[in-house]
Backbone:
């Protein structure tokens, strides 16, 4: 028998370990069932049939992992035309498919890629009918750009709409990368290869995607550890046994190759297997070929190979089949060589013989596939040499979204990590890149220098330009390209300002030698971006769940458990959204406008908008703006795609003016207790044509606490300053810039979704429901709808039971005392039933048994019975107690006009009605009609009402009893932004002046001072000093600290102090003085929520130009206009002393000179260019304020309401009748108005006033409707003005006309109700002369 008949020494495999793998998947054997389409370029640019054949070989290799019993594969080739060469239904075995693929011809021609995509869509439409629910994946391989790119772009959109997962592989130097990115589902689905030979480098990645059970490359950190793998094969075995054992060897080698790296190579001796090198990509085919071939014929040149295989100093691994091979193994060993592993394969070897041959070696036995898996795990550990040979780069986020405290944690983690890694002497330099607006590179010679220096890195602030840091680290890695492993560790919260560039750079890095580890920093991490950046999911870790030791273990020795939370949070809060889309000429082509449209539809899908509960609209703008509203998802998805491109100038202000008008109308109409958040997303590619008008519109929009503005700049002509103006604070979380709005920009969509979810969650904290303090002696009448319109088919009494539960909640949470109060319940449909209860136990035990009646909705009769019951309660108590009626209904009355009349009768008597909408389809107009004024305090939706007794709140008192002791805490900003100790001293002087002014009025009150910067300090506790000179001295001695502005820490300290020293009979008052926004606004919001729930009365004072007005609004108690103040500098605090003292202890209110009948009054104020400047406009405003001084403004039926409309070229509803419920709030709002300029279109203001009176008219005939028109010139359109005035007068509105300056007397008389209501002065300075005259007229 020849040497080959009893031993077959096969293959020397020297493992050259170049880079570790990015992807690690669960160890599952089952492949995913997929339908896979390959689209292959066969054009002339391939240059030869051999290159096309390499494409076909690539296809054969990738599909070898698929389960052909369930999955389907088709192939399309294209050049001048496209051919469907293999259909899904053509082949059902792998061998047949591979044979057919390799036979496909090369054709040549141009590169009409769109034809191939169209053919794929035709096949997909047929497939989706037959194979619904099966994942559809497309893989396109091309070496050049499309001959017709415009038609390609159109058809690719259809592919993405169909949700086909697309991979795009570009080969060679002539590929169009942007086109590939358009074709692919995301940037990490794009591969750029130097030539067709490199296709084998990515086949494992694709195979691992299609078949998760495929032995995928791991994160094992193998670094150039030399090893020899020798196979000893015995062909004397029975042929069946031999093939079985060889299949185990094939599986073992394949798993080992994939577990330690895709680019390791097998080095072979000359004349071996038709060449000198086998890669792991084709060794499997080689081994399969061995199993099908007569072995002696296959290896004719193997003599003496084994004698040089096993070497000292190497990790030597012998794989043995058969007893005869073990003898040959013994003969082949070098004298000094030692085998680390001997692996016996199959059933035919003897264990005792192995142990005798090499007793010092580790012995493993593989007889099953399961043992093969375990063997590979053990081998992989020895093949890895840890952290001994690598270049390390740290990328540290130092932007605004991180903040200084979190940046310091990044530096500490980096230092601790290097300590844990214990790198040897002579290690490569360590590189750090700190990045925000721009990246900053530092290099350190060794670990000790790095560890000593990194803590001194300073937080810089700014935008989060992650892409620039990635670009810098990739360039540095390429310069250092050598045999060393390249490892980067990025620490960030994933809030890129340019997310599309970040995504592109991450894709380039994944095609390079650089390995990316990512650590998420902070609480609000955007996982989607971090996942895209990380080399694999197992390269991603969270700061709060990883220690330096574990991270070191992951980098040096492979993945550890990373405990990554779910990627994107769901938006739990309900919100409305408006998309504002640039449709101007600056877009250049309609194609770019279509990109905006498709981005919006994709984002809408990500947000999972529920159109039954959410209002969605789109505003497009150029010279004019147009609004589109959508009632369903289907309507939104289809109609928005057909919106026209307008072309024209970029009047962003006109689009946002529509939003502002809607918001103001909403604010002046009915709302539930908690205002529903409104998200406004503005997409633009350039600066606004009228930036000054835009600034004013945005400023007014930002006054509304429930509005959040997002700004997305697209392209190269972005006006960053304007985007910053539009975006809500913090602007770095609401401003984004992208080069192009491609549909695969998933980081941007993820960032938007995450921020929208956070915003809508925290907006509810800004205006929480009022804390209730239920009167001890209130009488209640509940009216419960029990009609069929309320019923649900499956559960007819579903909503009726909710009504009953509501009543029980009110009685229990409101602590109703039945010894002093009376409670009745009326249920109604066709039948009306009255139920009276004597005690809480009586009510709770009996109300749950009330039957659901069904039938018509006779709300009018139920309201009449409510009026009778309220009258009875009033007569019994002799009018000493409040009596409230509460009706729960869907508003679908059988007789709506009669219902309105019944509600009006109750209003006229003066009883309060709270109307609560119940059910899935509430008629909000009917509910509003029934409720008392103010509507926003008496109209609710049951499902949105968390505080059942909010309508029982004790109304705020106009006068605070100053004799009641007060605990007063001053919270003073002591941060760097104050600039100097002198400025901090001005804060202290203000505190002492306020304290001295209060000293005589507040008796046994206590004062405290808290200062804050990086930390909060209890400078003066409540228990230390009263209102004495000692307190004043202590305050003036307080030091300036310096540091960041952690307002949340000071508020938390104040909250805990109030909680610890709370005493019955003492009011808690806090005064916050700051000159900037909080460093951690979200934590500040969380503390504010607790403070408001505690009922602490908060005043907020902002100083300077860098204040965060929205944060001040959040801190301030209601009404905000009486608790929030702003001054230009610290010297301006002196002006606030009296105001603050009055707010803390107001004393008696000065009564107006007359008490008129209640009136609804609109002031129409000229703001046109004829006024010349803001100073003259202010004279008009002062005139209006003096009139308001003599009106009782309030929320009761006996009080008046005031609204203001300004007009020039356009008219603006500055605030409506229901917005402000006190004289001070109205006056503050008036004095804050801005001058606009333009023509004098008075009729537009008249039209708005008519609409407002028509929509929000009070029913009582006692309430007058009055309009004051104040103008300094003639109307630009007198004919339209006359028509508008006639309409208003027909509604019974009383008009006063005031002219100052160059006015038209005849026009004033035409506007006024009669001549007695016309007032004229020569100039604006003389408006004071007619104030008293007008006051007398309004007080008659």
Residues:
């Amino acid at each position: 028998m020849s040497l080959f008949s009893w031993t077959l020494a096969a293959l020397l495999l020297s493992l050259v370990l170049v880079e570790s793998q990015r992807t690690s998947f669960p160890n599952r054997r089952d492949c995913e069932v997929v339908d896979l389409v390959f689209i292959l370029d066969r054009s002339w640019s391939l240059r030869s049939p051999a290159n096309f054949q390499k494409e076909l070989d690539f296809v054969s290799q990738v599909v070898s992992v698929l389960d052909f019993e369930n999955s389907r594969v088709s192939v399309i080739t294209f050049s001048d035309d496209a051919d469907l060469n293999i259909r899904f239904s053509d082949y059902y075995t792998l061998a047949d498919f591979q044979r057919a693929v390799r036979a496909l011809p090369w054709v040549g021609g141009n590169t009409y890629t769109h034809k191939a995509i169209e053919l794929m869509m035709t096949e997909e439409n047929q497939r989706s009918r037959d194979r619904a629910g099966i994942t559809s994946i497309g893989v396109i391989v091309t070496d050049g750009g499309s001959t017709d790119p415009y038609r390609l772009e159109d058809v690719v959109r259809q592919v993405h709409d169909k949700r086909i997962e697309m991979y795009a592989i570009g080969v060679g130097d002539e590929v169009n990368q942007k086109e590939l990115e358009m074709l692919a589902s995301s940037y990490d689905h794009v591969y750029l290869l130097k030539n067709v030979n490199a296709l084998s480098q990515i086949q494992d990645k694709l195979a691992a995607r299609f078949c998760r059970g495929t032995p995928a490359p791991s994160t094992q950190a193998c670094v150039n550890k030399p090893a020899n793998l020798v196979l000893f094969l015995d062909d004397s075995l029975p042929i069946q046994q031999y093939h079985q054992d060889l299949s185990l060897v094939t599986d073992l080698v394949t798993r080992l190759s994939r577990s330690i790296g895709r680019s390791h190579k097998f080095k072979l001796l000359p004349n071996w297997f038709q060449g000198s090198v086998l890669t792991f990509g084709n060794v499997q085919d080689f081994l399969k070929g061995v199993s099908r071939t007569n072995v002696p014929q296959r290896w004719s040149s193997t003599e003496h190979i084994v004698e040089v295989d096993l070497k000292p100093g190497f990790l030597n691994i012998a794989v043995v089949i058969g007893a005869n091979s073990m003898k040959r193994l013994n003969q082949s060993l070098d004298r000094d060589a030692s085998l680390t592993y001997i692996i016996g394969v199959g059933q035919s070897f003897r264990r005792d013989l192995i142990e005798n041959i090499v007793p010092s070696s580790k012995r493993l036995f593989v007889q099953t596939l399961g043992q093969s898996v375990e063997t590979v795990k053990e081998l992989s550990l020895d093949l890895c040499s840890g952290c001994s040979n690598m270049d390390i780069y740290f990328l540290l986020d130092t932007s605004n979204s991180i903040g200084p405290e979190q940046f310091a944690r990044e530096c500490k983690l980096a230092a601790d990590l290097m300590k844990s890694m214990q790198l040897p002497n002579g290690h490569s330099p360590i590189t750090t890149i700190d990045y925000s607006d721009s990246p900053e590179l530092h290099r350190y010679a060794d670990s000790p220098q790095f560890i000593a220096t990194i803590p001194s890195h300073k937080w810089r602030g700014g935008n989060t330009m992650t892409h620039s840091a990635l670009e810098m680290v990739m360039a540095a890695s390429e310069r250092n390209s050598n045999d060393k492993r390249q490892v980067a560790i990025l620490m960030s919260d994933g809030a890129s300002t340019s997310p599309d560039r970040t995504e592109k750079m991450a894709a380039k890095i994944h095609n390079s030698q650089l390995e990316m580890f990512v650590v998420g920093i902070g609480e609000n991490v955007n996982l989607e971006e971090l996942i895209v950046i990380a080399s694999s999911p197992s390269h991603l870790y969270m700061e709060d769940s990883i220690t330096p030791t574990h991270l070191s273990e992951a980098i040096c020795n492979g993945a550890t458990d990373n405990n990554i939370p779910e990627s994107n949070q769901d938006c739990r809060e309900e919100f409305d959204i408006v998309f504002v889309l640039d449709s101007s000429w600056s877009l250049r082509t309609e194609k770019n406008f279509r990109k905006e449209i498709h981005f919006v539809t994709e984002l809408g899908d990500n947000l999972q908008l529920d159109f039954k509960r959410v209002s969605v609209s789109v505003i497009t703008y150029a010279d004019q703006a147009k609004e589109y509203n959508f009632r369903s998802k289907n309507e939104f998805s289809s109609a928005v795609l057909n919106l026209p491109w307008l072309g024209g100038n970029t009047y962003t202000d006109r689009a946002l003016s529509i939003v502002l008008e809607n918001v103001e109308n909403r604010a002046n109409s009915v709302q539930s207790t908690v205002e529903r958040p409104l998200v406004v997303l503005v997409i633009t590619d350039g600066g606004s044509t009228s930036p000054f008008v835009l600034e004013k519109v945005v400023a007014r929009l930002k006054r509304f606490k429930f509005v959040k503005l997002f700004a997305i700049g697209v392209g190269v002509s972005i006006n960053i300053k304007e985007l910053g103006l539009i975006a809500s604070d913090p602007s770095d979380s609401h401003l984004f810039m992208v080069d192009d709005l491609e549909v695969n920009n998933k980081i941007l969509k993820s960032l938007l979704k995450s921020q929208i979810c956070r915003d809508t969650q925290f907006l509810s904290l800004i205006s929480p429901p009022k804390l209730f303090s239920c009167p001890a002696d209130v009488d209640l009448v509940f009216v419960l709808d029990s009609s069929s319109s309320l019923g649900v088919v499956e559960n007819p009494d579903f909503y009726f039971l909710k009504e009953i539960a509501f009543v029980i909640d009110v009685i229990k949470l409101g602590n109703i005392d039945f010894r002093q109060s009376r409670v009745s319940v009326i249920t109604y449909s066709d039948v009306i039933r009255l139920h009276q209860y004597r005690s809480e136990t009586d009510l709770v035990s009996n109300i749950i048994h009330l039957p659901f009646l069904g039938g018509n909705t006779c709300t009018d009769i139920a309201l009449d019975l409510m009026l009778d019951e309220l009258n009875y309660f009033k007569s019994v108590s002799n009018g000493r107690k409040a009596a409230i009626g509460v009706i729960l209904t869907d508003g679908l009355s059988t007789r709506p006009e009669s219902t309105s009349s019944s509600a009006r009768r109750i209003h006229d008597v003066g009883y309060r009605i709270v109307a609560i909408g119940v059910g899935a389809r509430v008629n909000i107009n009917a509910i509003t009609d029934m409720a008392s004024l103010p509507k926003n305090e008496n109209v609710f939706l049951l499902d949105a009402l968390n505080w059942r007794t909010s309508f029982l709140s004790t109304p705020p008192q106009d006068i605070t009893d100053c004799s009641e002791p007060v605990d007063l805490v001053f919270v003073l900003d002591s941060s760097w932004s104050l600039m100097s100790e002198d400025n901090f001293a001005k804060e202290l002087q203000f505190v002492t002046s306020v304290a001295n002014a209060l000293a005589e009025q507040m008796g046994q009150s206590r004062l405290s001072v808290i200062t804050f910067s990086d930390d909060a300090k209890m400078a003066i506790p409540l228990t230390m000093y009263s209102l004495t000179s000692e307190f004043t001295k202590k305050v003036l001695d307080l030091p300036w600290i310096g540091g960041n502005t952690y307002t949340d820490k000071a508020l938390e300290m104040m909250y805990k102090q109030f909680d610890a020293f709370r005493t019955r009979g003492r009011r808690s008052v806090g005064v916050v003085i700051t000159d900037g926004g909080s460093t951690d606004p979200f934590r500040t919001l969380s503390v504010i929520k607790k403070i408001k729930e505690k009922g602490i009365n908060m005043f907020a004072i902002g100083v300077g130009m860098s204040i965060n007005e929205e944060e001040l609004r959040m801190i301030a108690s209601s009404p905000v206009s009486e608790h929030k103040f702003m001054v230009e500098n610290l010297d301006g605090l002196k002006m606030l002393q009296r105001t603050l003292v009055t707010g803390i202890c107001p004393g008696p209110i000065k009564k107006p000179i007359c008490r008129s009948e209640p009136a609804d009054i609109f002031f129409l104020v000229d703001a046109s260019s004829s006024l010349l400047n803001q100073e003259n406009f202010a004279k008009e405003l002062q005139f209006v304020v003096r009139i308001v001084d003599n009106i009782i403004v309030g929320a009761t039926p006996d009080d008046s309401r005031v609204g203001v409309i300004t007009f020039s070229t356009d008219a603006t509803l500055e605030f409506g009748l229901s917005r402000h419920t006190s004289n001070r709030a109205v006056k503050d709002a008036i004095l804050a108005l801005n001058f606009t300029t333009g023509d004098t279109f008075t009729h537009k203001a008249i039209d708005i006033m008519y609409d407002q009176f028509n929509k929000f008219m009070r029913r009582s005939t006692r309430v007058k409707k009055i309009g004051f028109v104040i103008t300094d010139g003639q109307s630009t359109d007198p004919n339209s003005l006359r028509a508008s005035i006639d309409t208003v007068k027909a509604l019974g509105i009383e008009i006063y006309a005031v002219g100052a300056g160059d006015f038209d007397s005849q026009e004033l008389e035409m506007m006024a109700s009669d001549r007695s209501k016309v007032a004229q002065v020569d100039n604006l300075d003389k408006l004071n002369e007619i104030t008293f005259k007008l006051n007398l007229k309004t007080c008659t």
The mean pLDDT is 76.
